[in-house]
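Weekly modeling sync, notes
Attendees: AB, CL, MP (scribe)

Item 1: holo prediction request
CL wants a bound-state model with cytidine-5'-triphosphate before deciding which constructs to order. AB pointed out that an apo prediction alone won't tell us much about the pocket. Agreed to run with the ligand included and paste results into these notes for async review.

Input as submitted:
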Amino acid sequence: MALAGRQVLVIIGGGIAAYKSLELIRRLKDRGARVRGVLTAAGAQFITPLSVASLTGEPCYQDLFSLTEEAEMGHIRLAREADVIVVAPATADLMAKMAHGHANDLASTILLATTAPVLIAPAMNVEMWKKPATRRNLEQLKADGIHVVGPGAGDLACGETGPGRMAEVPEILAAVERILDAGPRPLAGVRALVTAGPTLEPIDPVRFISNRSSGLQGYRIAEALAALGADVTLVSGPTNLATPADVRRVDVESAREMWQAVRDALPVDVAVCVAAVADWRVTSPAAEKIKKSRDGLPALELTENPDILASLAALPAGERPRLVIGFAAETEDVVRHAAEKRRRKGADWIVANDVSGGAVMGGARNRVWLIRGDDTPEAWPEMDKAEVARRLAGEIAAHLAGAAEAEGSA
Ligand code: CTP
């Protein structure tokens, strides 16, 4: 379970064992991890970038100074977005670079820039493995908190026998899982509710009113809260997304169904309303398909839908979630409108996002401001929706921990 939804960066060094890393990527993906691959120049002598890209489903990252790669995914982002980095095979040269803090290619720069845990799976000739220089580097890496798996002993590709064989894929997987499992679970025991996706309001049996929400941001938030140990219910309008790991999902269509499912999920400690709830529904949807008529256009009478965020925020103390968070999709004067929306709806926090230009709804990235109370809005840099989610989950955990501490000392 530890791997589901986690971002694993696999750095493939130059060794004959590189072919095993392709298998490693497949197995990581099988377990639900999202995998990015970095191939060193030496690694590319053994396997092709195309294999890595095909298996990860993302570009294979190779160059530190590639304009296109830097524009799409800078080395700092590769380093920061990883939950864990696996170096497999870790050659003697890569280990030496890591031990000495070199940053002269993409792999070594990422390894220096990351704050994520790093696992190395060394693989090299037995004499190289035994050399004092490699022993020193290994000791240094261990002292620096780098995790090591293998190497195993046996026949080496170079024809010699002894230690130097890269650990087998199941051993590497188990090591990665151990590292991720050990992660902090600050939201253990916290009940969270997330609404996501569009709602769909029928006009007649075949037509409806809806919007462009993909549900992605809400799903990533549900996933990020679950990854920190929260017990998460995701109430979702129609989407094409897979249910995140360890999340209870309730599917609904209309706003009224969503409100009912939300009430059924109470009580919760935290509610994050990300759904793009249709503001109006057709007052009386037709029982039969509406026919084109000679009398002109059909008139659609609309009724306002329940406001789920505002209703949650207005629940009496005891029933109200301790933290009610909304999203504000705005196209102009984003922060002012969002701050005003927070007050109007009674939410504790609101995440303002700029949906002008059409790239956010349905897109993978988001640019947001976090507005807590009447404090100055915090502008977050544009990032992946998954990263926005992890950061928000972190803020929620910090807030609840702070609140618990305040209660304890009161
Ligand atoms: N929301 C909700 N129920 C509704 C409408 C909105 O829970 N019926 C929530 C959304 O999930 C989001 C927040 O309210 O967290 C703001 O949604 P947004 O669409 O930006 O605001 P609207 O209420 O639709 O306001 P407006 O159309 O005036 O921008």
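Recorded for review: The two ends are 38 Å apart (CA to CA).
Action items: CL to compare against the apo run; MP to circulate these notes.
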